[in-house]
Write a structure and sequence with these properties.
The complex is a heterodimer of chains A (114) and B (111). Chain A has 114 residues and is mainly beta. Chain A is built from no helices and eleven strands. In chain A, strands 2, 4, 5, 6, 9, 10 and 11 form a seven-stranded mixed β-sheet that branches. Chain A has a four-stranded antiparallel β-sheet with strand order 1-3-8-7, with no helix packed on it. In chain B, strands 2, 4, 5, 9, 10 and 11 form a six-stranded mixed β-sheet that branches. The chains are: A mainly beta (114), B mainly beta (111). The interface between A and B is medium-sized, with 27 and 24 residues.
Chain lengths: 114, 111
């Protein structure tokens, strides 16, 4: 079974803190994604990466950055957390051709910024 | 850009069939997916259909694809309380590694 593991299920941080959300996948997938999910807005793509050290902006990259130093790990960084970044964050990975398997998701990190 | 649309809510009685609908604009779609998200959890792949098929059945799940109308549906027979979740429709072109997502339909089961 492909596993995508997000380091924390729940996180509470203070406004202005630097926040790291970690995601690790164990199936040698090329592509990794970070989404945020808010009620009524569905999934919004923050950043994605199709190779080590490569990153592409998604639809809502402002206030975020990412790092992919190793193929299996994709980190999302909130440089200075703000209350409007309170959300559910979902990491996903996929092989080069999506085919029958699509994306595999982690369990999500619910981040609250106070 | 390409778009995928779903209604936000569907309410059905336990034991009835649920039909969740999705429309998309990408005429080059090759794979279409249904994902399920239970409360507080990530998304899990429920089923998929390849664009050269018009129907796929898997136990209580039936996926229907109308390519001409760009319409995808997911039918859940004999809906149970464990089917309460948000259901996301997504599509892709095979050459593209990105999925285009619908906003998700929350399925509410009434006793």
């Amino acid at each position: 079974d492909v596993k995508v593991t997000q380091s924390s299920r729940y996180l509470v941080k203070r406004t202005g803190e630097k926040v790291f959300l970690e995601c690790v996948q164990d199936m040698d997938h090329e592509n990794m994604f970070w989404y945020r999910q808010d009620p009524g807005l569905g999934l919004r793509l923050i950043y994605f990466s199709y190779d080590v050290k490569m990153k592409e902006k998604g639809d809502i990259p402002e206030g975020y950055s990412v790092s992919r130093e190793k193929k299996e790990r994709f980190s999302l960084i909130l440089e200075s957390a703000s209350t409007n970044q309170t959300s559910m964050y979902l990491c996903a990975s996929s092989d080069t051709g999506l085919g029958d398997y699509g994306y595999t998701f982690g369990s999500g990190t619910r981040l609250t910024v106070v | 850009g390409e778009d995928v649309e779903q209604s936000l809510f569907l309410s059905v009685r336990e034991g009835d069939s649920s039909v969740i609908n999705c429309t998309y604009t990408d005429s080059s779609s090759t794979y279409l997916y249904w994902y399920k998200q239970e409360p507080g959890a990530g998304l899990q792949l429920l089923t998929y259909i390849f664009s050269n098929m018009d129907m796929k059945q898997d136990q209580r799940l039936t996926v229907l694809l109308n390519k001409k109308d760009k319409h995808l549906s997911l039918r859940i027979a004999d809906t149970q309380t464990g089917d309460s979740a948000i259901y996301f429709c997504a599509e892709t072109e095979d050459s593209n590694y990105q999925l285009i997502w619908g906003a998700g339909t929350k399925l509410i089961i009434k006793p």
